Amino acid sequence: MKTWTSPLPPVNCDQKSGATKVEICPASTESRKIEEKKTHSACSPLRPGSFGRFNLADTLMKVSDLRSILQYVPRFREKIFVVALDGEIAASGNLSNLLLDLAVLRSLSIRIIIVHGCGAQLVQLGKERGVTISNSDGTGITDEATLKLGIEASHEVLQELMQGLSSVDLRAAYANVIVAHPAGILDGVDTLCTGKVERVETTTLQCFLNEGIIPVILPLGFDGEGRTFRVNSDSVALEVAEAMRALKIIYLSTEGTLWVGESIVRQLSVAETEDVLRRKRAVLDPSIVSKLEHASRACRRGIARVHLLDGTENEALLSEIFSHEGIGTMVYSNEYQQMRRALKKDLKGIMALIKESIANAELVKRSRADMLAALDDYWLLEIDRHLAGCVAIHFYPEHEAAELACLYVAKSHEGQGFGRKLMAFAEQLAAKKGAKCLYALSTQAYNFFQQKGGFSEVSPDELPPERRRKWEASGRNSKVMRKATVLSTKPPAPPQSLPQP
Questions:
Q1: 123 — phi, psi (to 5°)?
Q2: What pLDDT, on the 0 to 100 scale, is given for residue 391?
Q3: CATH number of 18-41+69-332: 3.40.1160.10, 1.10.10.410, 3.10.290.10, 3.30.460.10?
Q4: From CA 298, how far away is CA 81, in angstroms rounded?
Q5: Is 341 helix (H, G, I), strand (E, B) or coil?
Q6: Whole-model pTM over 0.85
Q7: 33 pLDDT higher than 60
Q8: Can you tell me the mean pLDDT for 143-171?
Q9: 3-state secondary structure (DSSP) of residue 112
Q10: Annotated domain spans of the chain
Q11: Is 111 helix (H, G, I), strand (E, B) or coil?
Q12: How far apart are CA 381 and CA 379, in angstroms?
C-alpha cells in the first residue's frame, strides 16, 4: 500500500484511536497553478463573439451568481457535507473538476468527508484477472476472491483521489473508521465477506476535520479481530453522515438523477420517495434505487437534505448546492417545502414576485394597501425558505363560495407543477371552510384553469354580487370560471409526482 507523507506538523489525534491507520496527502501549490491553467482551458471555452472583447452580460451574470451564493455561506459555514462518489465517477474525466469544486466548498469553510465506491474498478480487475466477481456493489455475496480484488480496487480509487486532492491544494487522509460485522445469512444465503456498518469512529473523523483535513473513507470495514469486510458505499455514506450529524449527503453517480420521461424530478419529500420506490422499483436502475432508499433513511434519521447528481456533468455539484432550483434530484425532510400564510413582512417580496405579471396585465393591479387589507387571504409557497409562489383565497361565506386569485409561480420554478399545487391547495382550503364552489377570473390564463384545474367558464352573472360589481368596475373583461369544490381525504398530489402505473 502506498503511504503519503506530509511535511506538515503531525495531527494530534485522540490516543483511543491509536489503531487507526492514517495516510495524509499534502497540498501542492505548484500543482494548483497547473490545475488552474488546465481548468481554464478545459472548462471555460470562449463564447462566440467574446474573443478579445469585454463581455458585460457574462460579467453581470457572474456577479449575480456570486450574490446568490453568498446567501448560503452563513448557513453552510462549518457544516459537514458527506460526498459519496461511485467508482465510475472516480474513473471519469470529470473527477478533476469535482475535486476543484470541493476546493471551492472548503474555501467557504464547509467541512467535507469523502466516501467512495469501487464497483467499476472491481469489475474491471475481475476481467483482467479472469476472476468471476460474486458481487460488485457490496450488497450481495462477497467471496474471498472478490474481497481480495475489492481491497485492491478500493486502494486504486484511494490513490486517484489522494493525487487529485493534492493537485487542488487540499489535504486529505485515509483512516479505517468503519467498524463492521458480517452481514450474515440473508434469505437463507450466507453473504460471506459482505459486511454491515456497526459503528463509525467519529473521534478520528472529527480530529481530521478540526485540522482542515478531508477524510476519505473506503467501502471496507473491519471488525475487532482484524477481519476485512466489503461494505456498500451508499450505506457507509449514510452511517457516516448520521454519526457526524452532517447537513447533507451528496451522491455522485453516472445514473445521477431521477427521471420521469424526459424530465428530471427536482425534489421529493421522504413520503414521495418511498412511494416512488414502492411503485417504480422494478423499472428504476439499481443504482438509483439504492440511493433513493438511503436518501429516505437519511432524512428520517435527521439529515436535512440528500442530493442525487450526475457526477459526469461539469459544475453539477456547485450548481446543485448554490441554487434554489438545483439541477439534480433532492430528497428532503418536511421543512424544505411548505405552504404558509403571508405575513406583513412578506408584502415587499410578494409585490416584487408579481410585479412583471401585473405589468403584462396577467394579474390585476394590487396596491400595498389593498394587499394589507386582505393579508389573511394570501398564502405563500416556500422552497428552502425562499418565496416560490403565492395564491390568495377570498371568501364569500354568505354565498358558500370562494375565489382563487393572485396565483403566481416564480420564473425559476416554472414547469415543475407548483401552479397545480397552489391551485389544489386553494380548492382544499375553500372546501374545508365550507365553500361549495371556487371561482377564478383571468384574462390570459383561463386555459390553464380549465385544462389543469377542471374549471368551466360561466357567466359573470354567476359571481356573488359584491364580486360582480368589482368585475364591472375593473374593465378587464376577465373570463369567469367556476368549479365545485371536493374535499379530499388525502393531501394534494405533490409537484412532479410520478404517474400512476
A1: -60, -40
A2: 96
A3: 3.40.1160.10
A4: 13
A5: strand
A6: no
A7: no
A8: 97
A9: strand
A10: 18-41+69-332, 338-484
A11: strand
A12: 7
The H-or-E segment that residue 178 falls in is: strand 178-182
Q: How far apart are CA 483 and CA 429, in angstroms?
A: 14
Binned at pLDDT 50, 70 and 90, residue 456 comes out as very high
User: How many other CB atoms are found less than 10 A from the CB of residue 131?
Assistant: 15
Residues with Cβ within 8 Å of 37's Cβ and at least 6 positions away in sequence, in order, are: none
CA dihedral 89, 250, 316, 94 (to 10 degrees): -20
| pLDDT tens digits along 372-430 | 999 999 999 988 778 999 999 999 999 999 999 999 999 878 887 889 989 999 999 99
* Residue 434 amino acid letter: G
Asked if residue 394 lies in contact with residue 405, where contact means CB atoms within 8 angstroms, the answer is yes
Residue 290 and residue 304: Cα distance in Å, rounded?
18
Mean pLDDT calculated for residue range 455-474:
95
Nearest to 441 by CA among 389, 403, 408: 403
Do residues 251 and 291 make contact, with C-beta atoms less than 8 angstroms apart? yes
At residue 54, what are phi and psi to the nearest 5 degrees? -85, 120
CATH class of this structure's domain 338-484 = alpha beta
| Residue position matching grid coordinates 421529493 | 268
Q: CA 301, 303, 304, 307 torsion: positive or negative?
A: negative
Confidence (pLDDT) at 333: 82
Residue 91 or residue 41, greater confidence:
91
Amino acid residing at 303: I
- Does residue 140 carry a pLDDT above 50? yes
- Following DSSP, what letter does each residue of 205-263 receive, concatenated? HHHHHHTT-EEEE-SEEE-TT--EEE--HHHHHHHHHHHHT-SEEEEEESS-S-EETTE
| 8 Å CB contact between 228 and 220 | yes
The most confident of 152-166, 268-282, 377-391, by mean pLDDT: 152-166
Q: What are phi and psi of 153, to 5 degrees?
A: -65, -40
Q: How many CA atoms lie within 13 A of 498 on its CB side?
A: 22
Contact 310, 335 (CB under 8 A): no
Q: Give the number of other Cβ atoms within 10 Å of residue 295's Cβ.
A: 28
Lowest mean pLDDT among 189-203, 277-291, 319-333, 368-382: 319-333
C-alpha cell at 60: 453581470
DSSP 8-state code for residue 30: H
Are 205 and 244 spatial neighbours (Cβ–Cβ below 8 Å)? Answer: yes
